[in-house]
Amino acid sequence: MPNTASPNTLPNTVRWAGALVTLQGLVAAGFAVVAVIRGLTGHDQSVTNGYGFAAWVAILGGAVLAAGIALLTGRRWGRAIAVVAQLLLLPVAWSLLTDSHQVFLGVVLGAVVLVTLVFLFSAPTSKWMALEYGSFSDEIATEETEDTETSEGKADN
Description:
The protein has six helices and no strands. The protein is an all-alpha fold.
């Protein structure tokens, strides 16, 4: 089956990235629930509509949650959504550090985003992503065979 991997071949970096992205999606879903509750309890909505915000965050959070679950289950398409989400969260972390004066939240979010990006772009994750393309795995096998033959030839001399 293309676009899937057996759980045995899934690198730990993909699992950890999937777990962090799933956590981010769950936090976004929590924000959506809180926004709906605030709207229902009559909080001031003159600046922003709580229901609209909840819908927006639920849609985006749902996509991030789906990407995290996809990574945990070995589906490669989750990586693209996860990378975009992390890149969009970097300015949010910066804003928390500077304009919002929420240093603790900014540091925590920034650390989670950077660690997730490291996992998403690590060598094991990139190799796992490349296995989708048969020619790449053939090239790796060919290179390993040539290296073995070369080293055996040198040992014979």
